[in-house]
Write a structure and sequence with these properties.
The chain is of the alpha/beta class and about 300 residues long. It has 2 domains: about 80 residues, Up-down Bundle (Four Helix Bundle (Hemerythrin (Met), subunit A)); about 150 residues, Rossmann fold (3-Layer(aba) Sandwich). About 55% of the residues lie in helices and about 15% in strands. It contains 13 helices and 8 strands. Helix 1 crosses helix 13. The longest helix has 17 residues. The mean pLDDT is about 95. The structure holds guanosine-5'-triphosphate and magnesium ion.
Length: about 300
């Protein structure tokens, strides 16, 4: 698993973050060192807030511990990043109850494929999954989910194209209750975070789900494309304002050299990252563990 993660983070490791290896091999902990460190972090999409925090924290530690050699700072640097990345992502699904996960996000970020990968995981751990085809906007979207459903042996609850997505979810909950399912995964249409009507549609789905299930069992998951960088953070903030997100799944980390976006997300949004996508195969969706992630990124 760690090797898959390492492969997936190759671009980031060899890209900007790879520059750290040289930085920590330097001989002096002078102002140039700190400036280079900050520059690399900013270029790797870590963001101003987290970069300032990391830099201030390490400058303080270096002074306090009287560290003179950059190499000695490396482990402290990694620890600091792990600290920034640690937001509890346990208990997002409650065993023994019917859970509903609502997947939201802009066009093409990877919602539908992520749902299929998640289903694969839940099925492997013995859960019964149901898909709700609440992307009624494109006919092809219903077919795409249906295709995954047949491949994975998951029932798909669907309506006609153009139907009310909230009604699909209502039916999916009834079907899940009858069929004694454990988890409903709801696929929704991609949307611009700036489109008020589409956001209202998602709020309605959420309202309907919370009316039918106990509140704590409905979770809203933002699927975010790592290659969109700082712009993705702006999108996430707007989704969070509208929908109060429970978790983030960050896809396509294999496609960017700026894996530092993970740090910016946790620092600026304080929403747990649940899984990260590092490729298109089912095993390429990996549970996000800050310690393992930092090791894979910097080793
Ligand atoms: N390399 C890579 N590709 C991914 C990853 N996750 C998803 N993709 C690809 O991204 C593309 C878009 O995925 P979809 O699941 O259709 O995206 P979506 O958000 O459902 O798109 P819309 O329904 O149009 O809004 C597909 O080609 C996926 O295979 C990932 O972690 N890495
Ligand atoms: Mg889709």
């Amino acid at each position: 698993m760690i090797n898959r993660l390492k492969d997936g983070l190759k671009k980031s490791r060899e890209g900007f973050l790879g520059q750290f290896t040289g930085l920590f091999r330097g001989s002096l902990l002078d102002e140039d060192f700190w400036e280079s460190m900050e520059e690399i972090l900013i270029q790797a999409d870590v963001g101003i807030c987290a970069t300032t925090k990391i830099s201030n924290e390490l400058r303080g530690l270096a002074k306090k511990l009287n560290i003179k050699d950059p190499e000695e700072l490396k482990e402290l640097f990694k620890k600091e990043i792990v600290k920034l990345l640690t937001i509890n992502n346990d208990n997002l699904v409650d065993g023994g109850y019917l859970n509903l996960l609502l997947f939201v996000g802009v066009n093409g970020v990877g919602k539908t494929t992520t749902i299929a990968k998640m289903a694969h995981k839940f099925i492997n751990s013995g859960e019964k999954v149901i898909f709700a085809a609440a992307d009624t906007f494109r006919a092809a979207a219903i077919e795409q989910l249906q295709e995954w459903g047949s491949r994975l042996g998951v029932d798909v609850i669907k309506h006609q194209r153009g139907g009310d997505p909230a009604a699909v979810v209502f039916d999916a909950i009834n079907a899940a209750n009858t069929r004694k399912a454990d988890i409903i995964l709801v696929d929704t249409a991609g949307r611009l975070h700036t489109n008020v009507n589409l956001m209202e549609e998602l709020k309605k789905i959420k309202r309907v789900a919370k009316n039918e299930l106990s509140k704590g069992l409905v979770k809203t998951v933002l699927v975010m494309d790592a290659t969109t960088g700082q712009n993705g953070i702006l999108q996430a903030k707007l989704f969070n304002e509208a929908l109060n997100l429970d978790a983030i799944i960050l896809t396509k980390l294999d496609g960017t050299a700026k894996g530092g976006i993970v740090i910016a997300i946790e620092e600026e949004l304080k929403i747990p990252i649940w899984f990260v996508g590092v490729g298109e195969k089912p095993d390429d969706l990996q549970n996000f563990d800050p310690q393992v992630f930092v090791e894979a990124l910097f080793e």
